[in-house]
C-alpha cells in the first residue's frame, strides 16, 4: 500500500502510542501488526526501531485481547491538552 506523508506519519505516531492497539491501525489504515513492524523497521533508525520493538512487545495495551477492560480509549487523558 502507498500512503501519503501525512498518513505514514500518523501510522508511526499511532504505533509509538502505548494505548493505541495494532487493531486500531489495521482498522484505520489496513495494516496488520506485521505490516506495521515492517513499516517501522523501514522508517526508523535501527536504534529507534529496537527501542520501539522492545517497548511495543511489552505492552498489553497494544493488543485489544490482552488489554485490561479499564483501558477504555486509545489515548491518555493528558495526551491532548487544551490550549
UniProtKB/TrEMBL annotation:
The lineage of its organism: Bacteria, Pseudomonadati, Pseudomonadota, Gammaproteobacteria, Oceanospirillales. NCBIfam families: TIGR03643 family protein. This is DUF2805 superfamily protein. InterPro entries: CHP03643.
Amino acid at each position: 500500500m502507498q500512503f501519503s506523508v501525512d498518513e505514514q506519519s500518523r501510522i508511526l505516531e499511532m504505533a509509538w502510542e502505548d494505548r493505541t492497539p495494532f487493531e486500531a491501525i489495521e482498522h484505520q489504515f489496513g495494516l496488520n501488526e506485521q505490516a506495521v513492524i515492517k513499516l517501522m523497521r523501514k522508517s526508523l533508525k535501527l536504534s529507534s526501531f529496537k527501542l520501539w520493538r522492545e517497548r511495543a512487545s511489552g505492552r498489553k495495551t497494544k493488543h485489544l485481547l490482552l488489554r485490561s477492560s479499564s483501558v477504555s480509549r486509545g489515548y491518555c487523558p493528558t495526551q491532548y491538552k487544551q490550549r
